[in-house]
Amino acid sequence: MSFLNRISKDKAGTILFLTSLSVILITLGIIQTLLFETITFFSDIAEHRGWFSLEWDFGGIFSASGFACLLLVVALILDYESKKEKNRLSIIPQEVWNPHHGIVKAVFILVVLQLLFNDSFLLGLSILFLTMIWRATGKLQMKRIFGGNIEISNTWRNVLFLFIFITLFDAITMNYSGAFGEFFLQNQWTPTGACEDRRSLCDTMSFGVNSLLLTTLQVAFGALIIAVPLGVGCAIYLSEYAHPRLVAIVKPTLEILAGIPSVVYGFFAFIYIGPLVVQFGEYAFANGWIDESPNVLNPINGAIVVGVMILPLIASMSEDALRAVPNELREGSLALGATKIETTMKVMIQASLSGIVASIILALSRAVGETMAVTLAVGTVAVYTSNMFLPAQTMTAYIAQRVGGDLPFGEIGYLTIFAVGLYLFVITLCLNLLGNKVLSTYREAY
Amino acid sequence: MKDIDKLQKRNRKLRDLTERAGSTGLAITGLIGLLFLGVLVWQIAEPTFIKGEQGEITPASESIPESDYRFKWDFPTVDENGEPFTDPVVLRFGWDDENGSHSHDVEINVIETRQVKTDIYIDSTGVDQTEIDVGRKTNFNAYSSLTVPVSVEQISGPVPNADETGYPAVNTFVITGDVHVLWDDENKQVFQPMELLGWITLLILVVVLTWPNVAVLNIIQKLKGRRTLIKLASYVLAGTTFAISDGMFVAAALGSICWLVSGVILYKIAEGIERLESLGRELSETSRLKHSISARDGVLMWSRMLLFTSTLFIPLLIDIPFLTERYQDIFIPYASGIRAAFYGTIWVMLIAMLVSIPVSVGAAIYLEEYAKPNRTTKLIQALVTNLAGVPSIVFGMFGLAIFVKQDGFGWGLGPSVLAAGLTMGVMAMPIIVLAGQEALRSVPRTLRESAYGIGCTRWQVTKDHVLPSAMPGIMTGTILAMSRIMGEAAPLVVVGATAMILFDPEPLAALNGGNVNFTVIPIQIYFWTAEPDHAWHSMAAAASIALICLLVAMNSIAIVLRQHFRKRLKS
Fold it and tell me: H-helix or E-strand containing B68?
């Protein structure tokens, strides 16, 4: 009765409340649709191949992943030891904790070389982790010796545990099968096969989504490599250096860049960037850096064009973050005798870091969810390869390409796009949640 | 001491150098974005308008009185057996006009001399030559004075080599005829004189009112006390314009609306003069003119927008085949156009607006004005923020499962304009909610509190005080959201738009069982880019330019609205 009373008391308010409920309805609708079809998809595969099973192979400990796991365990021990009040690390000489810059640079070169020749992503990541923990431990040790505020945070430990689990799992498991094992852990994506019945599955089909995920990540991170320096540089220039008249020109230009539809960018990539990348790829092929001759459609092409697309987003959001920093900080730094570039690099960027990071995370989410440009630029062949000059397929491109033909309801091809879509939705949702959280922290700070 | 001075000096030099290098670097990174834009526009414009590769794209031929075609003659000299070609090349020119279909063969002898060429002229009697000589690697032209497209087909002879871009040269072409301009002697006029006169009157009025001077004030003074006459005259002129038009509805409607709006402007001026007089003043200063036509009604702004929209319609009335033709055939790219895609875009946008604007503005008002800070509100807020970041293709899949398919929870609308519009409306909703909230938040607190203070209810405060002040922000946000979904192709690919549409889309086909197929401009660009034939890529480039023009038009409307309302709030 109280609800009816409320309606009769405040009709406008109730109607407005109902309109806002539509947002909940839409979200529920999206999640319901994706989940419903995905569950059908997984249970369809599980009928044939079971839900999940894997084979162990302990010989894999001696592989690159096993070595990566070892490095991560060393990093974890270092981290654990360094947090103790009286640790055993003091027997290691100071020079190790305070290495020459050359050694740090050598480590980064080692990572790149490792990625080029050994091609193990996890090993490269673990070398980076070890270096970071080494530096952090070193800092802590130096502070212990020379005095200073020691703050201990355990954030890294959880990340390390997670990655140790991943590398160990990667090292000692051989074959995954069953619905979940195949979808999340296998690398081959061949969702079409010659089966008698269109509805049914057969053994020639394979649903390893990692093939699509790898290309998606290649494109997204490649785009970040291009867009972050340009975008953040542009933001710094606009907020700190540029003449107001130039800002009046550049800001609308950025808005126009942001407003150009993604399919036009795709056309641009297809016509213009692709042939340029092929020229470079042919040079690389002639020198023997890559195994196969390049194609016009490739992830590098996609990364460049998506980078151009997310550049305005990063630039405008970072500029907002930089403008939100109070003027006192800038003036204080200048009054202390710092030059303008020092003020920018050491004060302004530090102060607006969370805003910049949020813009990068949200841009990453945009890059992962980008569809048309990527479909036109990257190609439609789902392969699992680290050679970025060959055509590949991202998750969004798979959905767009597969749905282009008329898909009957309930067929396995129709179900795959929802499984891939749900995976994509979860990834972007996590990134958005993270980005918005980081964004709200900087909004609270100033 | 000296050493320290030296050291400091060197350090300062170093710092200066870093300073300069750093700021230069930042400037360069900032300008690279501009460079990208420039390259993008150039790359789209170059194959379309400048290079004009195999045949002119029709919008570019607007300024050319007779469209001509330039043939590239870069044929192989030997065949696969190594023997030289001796066969002549035969081209077949064909067209359809009121006298039936014509077809003429022209034999081309390729001779060794480089610079020899003969041009071909085509008119209603036929092709003027049956045999011509052309030198190797020499371009020759075909000129057409027909009003219908002429197709060229290669009947015999060697297949052309690939051109420099790596695509095989096209051996099926289309020559388009004259572009009909405003007054065409052979065909009927596009605009009747009355319609054109109405448009010009409005244009002159708007120009005069925007930059008034003392001379026109004296003329305007004479309007005093003639309100009834103005009213009557505008009605009569609009009616006559509509009555004597020759059946072209859009042109007649535009003309008569122009007359009516001109009448309204003059009426308002006369009213303003009388009001000034009752206050004991006279219209002697130019600055008072705009006040006299009462800026609150926004007559000037609406008439400016009318002029703007009518300029958008003019290319459709003038016969530019790229804008007025639909998809023709896979083999004749240059005869196709974006008419079906244009109408599809308009319908999808209209349906999306109808669905999303009421609901999302309502939600924004609820979240900002009514909601108590409890758990439900927080949930809705979080959902809105995160929905705005969901990839567009996921919305497309939502539309596919809910609106398009019949099984499960589906509504079974099929791949129709209606389903596409609903999907796009759902997609635009979170964007409009966020923009609306931003606009409502920027309304000063004091406005609300003073309204509550004199005893308004919450709905009265919202309706009469908060909404009018927040309107510019809401409208701008809405138009920007619309321009964003106008360029989106991904959800519509999933919903099931197709590229080869031979008819204009019907908006309600899903309900009354008509032809549900539809297309929009981004979809057209996508499918044309995916075609292997290089000629379609030029069409995609032209369609891209058309789309960008539409988007820029929408954004400038948003800017005009924002500025108008901002001024009004200030006054």
Answer: strand B68-71
Element (H, E) at A189: strand A189-190
Identify the pLDDT of residue B206.
Answer: 81
pTM above threshold 0.90:
no
Q: Which of A27, A404, A410 sits opposite B387 (nearest CB)?
A: A27
Are B388 and B534 found together in one domain?
yes
Percent of chain A clearing pLDDT 90 (strictly above): 22
Share of chain B above pLDDT 70, in %: 64
pLDDT at A221 over 80: yes
| Cβ(B179)–Cβ(B145) below 8 Å | no
Whether B45 and chain A come into contact, CB under 8 Å, resolves to no
Low-confidence stretches of chain B (pLDDT < 50) are 47-68, 72-75, 161-186, 571
- Sheet containing strand B150-156, edge to edge, reads B131-135, B100-111, B89-97, B150-156, B172-175
- B185 domain-assigned: no
pLDDT of res. B116: 62
A237/B33 CB distance under 8 A: no
Which residue range is the domain that position B94 belongs to?
Answer: 64-175
CB atoms A26 and B362 under 8 Å? no
Burial string for B263-296 (b: 16+ CB within 10 Å, else e) reads bbbbbbbbbbbeebeeeeeebeeeebbeebbeee
CATH number of A209-445: 1.10.3720.10
Per-residue confidence (pLDDT) for residue B38, from 0 to 100: 64
Same domain, B38 and B114: no
Q: Kindly state whether residues B309 and B353 are assigned to the same domain.
A: no
**Which residue shows structure tokens 């008034």?**
B212
d(CA A396, CA A31): 17
How many domains does one find in chain B? 4
* Interface probe, candidates A246, A267, A272, chain B, greatest B C-beta count within 10 A: A267
Q: Is residue B543 part of a domain?
A: yes
For residue B305, being part of any structural domain is answered with: yes
Same domain, B483 and B369: yes
Question: Do B7 and B130 fall into the same domain?
Answer: no
**CB < 8 Å to A343, chain B:** none
Report residue A92's pLDDT band, with 50, 70 and 90 as the boundaries. confident
Q: Quick one: average pLDDT of A286-314?
A: 89
Nearest CA in chain A to B362: A16
Q: Is the complex ipTM higher than 0.90?
A: no
Calculate the alpha carbon distances from A357 to A7, A347, A438, B109, B256 in Å. 45, 16, 7, 68, 56
With tokens 């440009």, the residue in question is A373
| B333 and B303 housed in the same domain | no
Instruction: Give a yes or no: residue B69 inside a domain.
Output: yes
Interface residue B558 vs chain A (CB under 8 A): no
